[in-house]
Amino acid sequence: MKKLFTLIIFVLFLSGLLFAEGYKEKDYQKKFVTYLEKNYYGKIETNKRLEGRTEADILTKEYAIEVDWGEKWYQAIGLSLHYGLVSRRKPGILLILKKGGKNNIYLKRLINVIVKYDLNFHLWTIDLDFKVSEVQYPKRKPMPKK
Predict the structure, then answer these.
(1) Tens of pLDDT along 1-24?
(2) CB contact at 8 A, 70 and 97
């Protein structure tokens, strides 16, 4: 009985290691801020309190950026638009993409909405290995580097 209990505990421990995300949204946010500071802007504000008791994930001098997981792409649109409005900045989204096919679907859905409704978003992705990509879509020009 004791061996069975030990085996169950061990299996639960391993499954927790295998299926855990590993990192939290804030970890990806920090890596992305480092990327932005290095490549574009210098000092950037994070978790900035805005009017109406809302909090923008990232504020640069030009963008209000919402950071969210791929499956929450639709929430990222609304939050980014709101943060842009109240901070008087352009909306931006950093989408965290897990490995696997569904994340491409989330990204395509996001781009389809942006293009269909002619929204002016800046869009980046970051993968689980912290690789940042700037997403290009119709009517969007790349962001100029420093």
Answers:
(1) 565 445 455 544 544 444 445 789
(2) yes
Residue 75: which pLDDT band, with cuts at 50, 70 and 90? very high
Please state which CATH number belongs to domain 23-134. 3.40.1350
CA–CA separation, 104 and 98 (whole Å): 10
Return all residues near 79 (Cβ < 8 A) that are at least 6 apart: 66, 68
pTM above 0.85, yes or no: no
**Sheet strands side by side (includes 54-59):** 45-50, 54-59, 63-69, 90-97, 122-127, 132-134
Q: Where are the domains of the chain?
A: 23-134
